[in-house]
């Protein structure tokens, strides 16, 4: 039997991958034609591939490796827990120490009275929990008609049937008959693409007021909750205008609806504070968490729930849960991750030192002829590619063509930067150093130059 290992030639690994592995969000045939890049190791912010290339991972994996790669303490926490108690559930009047300790830690870290956690295995699962929880909450309060959850177009809340329905990705809705009933989508606060002649401030208010209009139109007695990411991540790092969140909060305070902040990306230091809700002064009733909770070292997600909602939910048996809700190994890894993020001052430093430095450098990219706006929130950022900055024009080619060209140039320059349509996005590990930021910007600039030249050569601008 051939042992499949890092020592195998890349082409053989790629052939086996193409033969048997179906990749998420990927055209399998296209990938098989070019061969997947095989990542073999990682340390800090640097990935190594099977050809020995060192690649700067400006995406922290999928927005999740906040602590950086290669922290032995997390591996050791997992090994210790696997030896002591690799698995037990919390369904039938049982619990275990890792679940208790992590819940206690989360209650202390989370703002306001988000003192309770319902564990899940991922962000998608946690948002499915939220969907069922808010509807169950209102039913428990004698208002079973309050079922509609309002979300936003171009939001990302996960890939399960429930969470993808909550999300507002039209490409996802087009496959498999989504969304499910009683989900309503309003417009996003994406000024660059949709702001027209309004100032960002006017536009932020107008988009927030769509929530109020939707509540009136659907009926306050029918609406259970509003869900949103503090900063839309997968939608393209859309940092909302300053006027947006205060107005949303006012509306949520005025009407009897629950506010769910999906902090799967924004949580655990990404926006420069522990939670995006703190950065934007939001007071959610429920917060979705995952990703940075364990820095991606083990799969875990959850819903942080405020006292009032938990009190109502605790009055019934919520017929909901996952085999891996509160998985002891994931909880132990998450706890160790949070300990390090806190004790080593990683989150504090990211907000106070790294974020301002990154912003200064990131903003310089607007000097590039291909770049319209540059947006940044803590350590998540985006740039809009455009053929004409002054009119905020889109490219004549299909949306995403220029972005893909730029992403490929980045890959060629050993930089992982993702494209969302024609926006380039970053979300590096929080531990990225100033010299590494300089390297990242230098590679991004070189990639933009190459993309610019190619777009011109191909008559795309
Ligand atoms: N919510 C948001 C805001 C996300 O960005 C993601 C993942 N990118 C999810 C939910 C889904 O999380 P998961 O992939 O862990 O299911």
TrEMBL record:
<comment type="similarity">
    <text>Belongs to the class-III pyridoxal-phosphate-dependent aminotransferase family.</text>
</comment>
<dbReference type="GO" id="GO:0030170">
    <property type="term" value="F:pyridoxal phosphate binding"/>
</dbReference>
<dbReference type="GO" id="GO:0008483">
    <property type="term" value="F:transaminase activity"/>
</dbReference>
<keyword id="KW-0808">Transferase</keyword>
<dbReference type="InterPro" id="IPR015424">
    <property type="entry name" value="PyrdxlP-dep_Trfase"/>
</dbReference>
<keyword id="KW-0032">Aminotransferase</keyword>
<dbReference type="InterPro" id="IPR015421">
    <property type="entry name" value="PyrdxlP-dep_Trfase_major"/>
</dbReference>
<dbReference type="InterPro" id="IPR015422">
    <property type="entry name" value="PyrdxlP-dep_Trfase_small"/>
</dbReference>
<dbReference type="InterPro" id="IPR005814">
    <property type="entry name" value="Aminotrans_3"/>
</dbReference>
<protein>
    <submittedName>
        <fullName>Putrescine aminotransferase</fullName>
    </submittedName>
</protein>
<keyword id="KW-0663">Pyridoxal phosphate</keyword>
<dbReference type="InterPro" id="IPR049704">
    <property type="entry name" value="Aminotrans_3_PPA_site"/>
</dbReference>
<dbReference type="Pfam" id="PF00202">
    <property type="entry name" value="Aminotran_3"/>
</dbReference>
